[in-house]
Amino acid sequence: TQLLEQSPQFLSIQEGENLTVYCNSSSVFSSLQWYRQEPGEGPVLLVTVVTGGEVKKLKRLTFQFGDARKDSSLHITAAQPGDTGLYLCAGVTRGAQKLVFGQGTRLTINP
Amino acid sequence: GAVVSQHPSWVICKSGTSVKIECRSLDFQATTMFWYRQFPKQSLMLMATSNEGSKATYEQGVEKDKFLINHASLTLSTLTVTSAHPEDSSFYICSARASLDTQYFGPGTRLTVL
Known about the structure:
Chain A is mainly β. Helix content of chain A is about 0%, strand content about 55%.
């Protein structure tokens, strides 16, 4: 069974601070995705990383895929209250092309 | 991005009844759709892979006779929760695969079984 360990599961910080969320696995994924989910809604894709070592930036969000394609991180710079939400990493399995989700990180940015 | 809809967005039913949830890809065709379940404060758990024109593939521990999936067209998959019980209350989310590594998620259906 392929598992993704996401940490931390809960994070509450002040506006303006930086944070990093980690997503780790012992399995190799063909690609890894990060989603954000608001309460009562479906997840919305933020980014897909495919190549080992790849770094992608989306405004204040920086996503990195590990060299071995087993882990990833999401770094948010100068967090804002609008960043509050549930962040989910998901690995795309080889062959079956299914998504394996991490436990999620519930992020709260306090004004 | 592509749009996936779900209907209903929420439903309340009595224990023992069946509930059907629809998942539609509105602007693209999807030979493969996925059904997930999400309990409060938890992540998404894949229940089954729905393949157009063939039987669904269920994940381990998911009862195929309880969660009936039909993918009759390239834009519609349905999930029927049969003989629902309170423990089936959850947030059910579908997704439609647009390419090998791209899925678009529906807005979810909140099921409450009394």
